[in-house]
Amino acid sequence: MMANGEIMKIKHIAAIVSAGAMLWAVPAWAHHAFAAEFDAKKPVHLEGVVSKVELINPHSWIHVDVKNADGSMTSWMVEAGSPNVLLRRGFTKTTIAPGTPVVVEGFQSKDGSLRANGRDITLPNGQKLFLGSQGTGAPYDEKGK
Amino acid sequence: MNYRTISALALAFTGFLAAQTPTAKTSSKNWTVPRTPDGKPDLQGVWTNATLTPLERPAAVNGKATFTDAEAAVWEKKSKDDEAKYDGKADNPIADSLGSGGTGGYNALFVDHGTELARVDGVKRTSLIIDPPDGKVPPITQEAKARNAQMMRSMSRFDSVKDRPLGERCLTSFGSSSGPPMLPVLYNNNYEIVQTPENIVILVEMVHDARIVRMNATHAPTSVRQWFGDSIGHWEGDTLVVDTTNFTDKTRFRGASENLHVIERFTRVDAKTILYRVTIDDSSTFAKSWTIEYPFVATKGPIYEYACHEGNYAMSDILGGARKAEAEKEKK
User: Fold this and answer.
1) Which among B99, B207, B306 has the least Cβ separation from residue A30?
2) Residue span of the structural domain in which A70 resides
């Protein structure tokens, strides 16, 4: 059974974290400056199908074919995370089959090319794209205690 | 002062630090340090330094160096909840703290910074910095402030690939993942150590940097400068001590100069843990030397290659974006 002092300490920590303190361990400078690469003034909403997954370094890229109103097709590239992290979670370049429908929320690259960051990548039903894939979605279990 | 004198001074300083060798408790009475054929502690294997503990102690827990497990659980849950709360949102303070500039970064699935706070001697830590006792990087000197201001100005230039930071150029890791000092970053926090009596190699997954520690050697002449410095090692009892000098002015750990001097200590404390303690000294940058301590935890391999140039589309997006902005400005 916890002593009163311990309960008070936990309440204190709970009060601190609920006050909105940011607890993240963040590096001083990120790898690729998203602020320099993508334009926060150019949001994109893409609904299309996956044509290819490039599991390449430093970040993976998901190619998405988006059908335009006139029936023509535009191919976008969506930046995702480190392939190393995905591989450890059981994700390979065949995990998402070509033809899988996706919805992407992101921002277009500053140079105007058809590339965007995959801020949010989901299936049309709103399910996170990767969380429904086999062997993904949970922190891998070999992390030591 | 020739390099032998400097080496002698460095060794003397290292000897002084020997008195501060970590004395972490081992977790099992039955465990004994595994050894290589030459009788040295065996540090080989794949290790991770992923942790939720930040380098500096958050202001919210000023004066508090450790958590009880129950307090830590509250903190860890808050971190996880925040990650889920902001996942995929454009208005994402976590991504913004990493420089996303309002673009939201990408899904939390791609982030792999661990799920727990760092535990040393059975107790969870609120900061990786243990000295100064306030858990904060010591004040920066005026000289370093001027130098860093110049560096920040150059980082806002986009005229050439060479204007961009080394991490962005895929030349080295970012956030001092390779170090020294080695620090956890957002993902790829995996390391492999390979050991012989003559050399110890630390392979860092982030940008697959490999640092070679020459055992029982003396430092190269000061005219020989390397991005990760010149690392020499020796054993003090069962602790590997690695002394690194001869940095360039390119990697600039937290604004440090090429005079940076890093002393790392690796001590196996149980079957799954290397205790890593590292002291950072650069009087031209920091008001005093400071020390970080946290565990490297055994993890399943292999290390994956991170050939960063393979598809570094970001660089063309960044420089192309700057050219486009210039062209638009000229039109106006």
Assistant:
1) B99
2) 35-122
Inter-chain touch B318–A33, beta carbons under 8 Å: yes
**Interatomic CA distance for residues A73 and A90, integer angstroms:** 31
On whether residue A13 sits in a domain, the answer given is no
Where do the domains of chain B lie, and which CATH numbers do they carry?
Answer: 3-22+35-59+126-331 (2.40.128.20), 66-122 (no CATH)
Q: Which has more pLDDT, A79 or B96?
A: A79
Q: Which of B184, B186, B300 sits opposite A142 (nearest CB)?
A: B300
What burial letters (b/e) apply to B273-286, b meaning 16+ CB within 10 Å?
Answer: bbbbbbbbbbeebb
The complex scores an ipTM of 0.74
B240 to chain A, closest Cα gap in Å = 22
Interface of B with A in 196-235 (CB under 8 A): 205, 207
Q: Are B195 and B36 in contact (CB under 8 A)?
A: yes
Q: What part of B 12-31 touches A (C-beta under 8 Å)?
A: none
pLDDT for residue B263: 98
